[in-house]
Write a structure and sequence with these properties.
Layout: H1 3-6, H2 10-23, H3 28-31, H4 43-61, H5 65-85, H6 90-109, H7 113-133, H8 138-157, H9 161-181, H10 186-205, H11 209-229, H12 231-251, H13 255-275, H14 280-299, H15 303-323, H16 328-348, H17 351-371, H18 376-393
Helix pairs in contact: 2-6, 2-8, 4-5, 5-6, 6-7, 7-8, 8-9, 8-10, 9-10, 10-11, 10-12, 11-12, 12-13, 13-14, 14-15, 14-16, 15-16, 16-17, 17-18
């Protein structure tokens, strides 16, 4: 997995959008042939930089990494010159901080973890100095939150768990400070949820189940607060938290707790679907909850409940496949659910019913595999289902 794929999140997207307007001051110096010794007080040069740096930002957005790297590297030298010439100018210092954040984003895209870490760390260090001077600046706190979130995500990818934990903890601290001085700031509440989610994942990966559960509870509390402050935004993230909490309980073997949480999340999903009937993702997530419930009930030997849950999965999957017939995931969900039902009937000793479900799965799996010969998963589906059918017929 590349760093770029690992480090994508709301925090990073927020950072990119927030940084864009500042970074539009970058590329003009390079494209006009001006060196890093350009005068810091050259307003005309700065205006030209704003105009030309739009092209540099567009290069990054469009994946032109070589052009973006050349422009951002030169820009960092220029902003460093400005910052050195005006050490007491907050905007000059923030420009330097933001360009380092953007360099970090670019290095992440290039899978150059060490360089990305250096750039993110420098961004945070400069911003912290600015924050010490003006602790009421909401914008600086937002910068620190996003910066620590990015550094934490990167550190996870680099297998530096201690550094990741420290970055996430700093991000949480800054979120709490921002909430204290700007209680209506919805973005800080959203980022607090995200930071607790990242902490929980980190602790779960370290097999610290109790601490991971505590982090999940803090995440849940943060999302409840977000729900109270912004019902439309909070309802969706609260639902996703319940779903992840249920998954966490299932992974650590607390099946009864997982079932209770998933059952509670069903009502949230239904409400989201009623309010957003055209949003197929909400229906798919509702289907995922029923999948989890089916699996958990089956593990506990509660086969009737498992069959009921998988029946709902089939109903939803059929609706999704009809609404988006070209989506392989929706169509494969039907295959997998028939296969799961076959496993339940087999466990109950109902071999005829099991065989019927396996054959239904195979009828649907074969055309998918034939139409997508390069999809290894679909080929494995056919092989596995066929093997099950052969075993039952012996």
């Amino acid at each position: 997995m590349s760093i770029a794929k690992h480090c994508v999140g709301k925090g990073m997207e927020t950072g990119i959008r927030r940084a864009a307007s500042v970074l539009l001051t970058v590329a003009a110096f390079l494209l006009l042939g001006m060196g890093p010794t350009a005068r810091a007080d050259s307003g005309a040069s700065r205006e030209r930089a704003i105009e030309l740096s739009q092209n540099a930002y567009a290069a990054f957005s469009q994946g032109d990494i070589r052009t973006a790297l050349a422009n951002y590297t030169a820009a960092e030298q220029i902003f460093r010159t400005f910052a050195k010439a005006a050490p007491s100018d907050p905007q000059a210092q923030r420009d330097l901080a933001v360009i380092n954040e953007r360099l970090g984003d670019l290095y992440v895209r290039m899978d150059q973890g060490t360089k990305a870490q250096f750039a993110y760390t420098r961004n945070i260090s400069i911003t912290e100095e600015l924050y010490r001077v003006d602790a009421e600046d909401v914008r600086l706190l937002q910068d620190l939150i996003v910066g620590n979130l990015k550094l934490g995500d990167l550190s996870v990818w680099l297998a530096k768990a201690d550094q990741a934990a420290a970055a996430y903890e700093q991000g949480v601290t800054h979120c709490e400070r921002l909430s204290a001085i700007a209680p209506d700031n919805i973005e800080s509440r959203r980022n607090l949820c995200l930071l607790w989610y990242r902490q929980g994942g980190l602790l779960r990966k370290a097999k610290l189940a109790d601490k991971a559960e505590t982090a999940r509870r803090f995440e849940l509390a943060a999302r409840n607060a977000l729900l109270a402050a912004a019902p439309d935004t909070g309802r969706e993230v609260l639902f996703s938290t319940y779903r992840r909490l249920g998954e966490h309980y299932g992974q650590v073997g607390q099946r009864a707790d997982a079932i209770a949480v998933f059952q509670e999340s069903l009502g949230m999903a239904d409400q989201l679907i009623r309010e957003n009937p055209e949003n197929l993702r909400y229906r798919w997530e509702l289907s995922s909850i029923y999948k989890n419930l089916g699996e958990l009930h089956a593990q506990l030997g509660q086969f009737d409940s498992a069959e009921s849950a998988y029946g709902r999965v089939l109903d939803i999957a059929a609706e999704l496949a009809k609404a988006a017939p070209d989506d392989l995931d929706f169509r494969r969900d039907i295959v997998v659910t028939h296969y799961k039902l076959g496993g339940i009937f087999e466990a109950e000793g109902s071999h005829d019913s099991a065989l019927k479900e396996y054959e239904s799965a195979l009828v649907l799996a074969r055309p998918l595999a034939e139409a997508n010969t390069g999809n290894d998963q679909l080929q494995r589906d056919v092989a596995e289902i066929s093997q099950k059918i052969d075993e039952l017929k012996r």
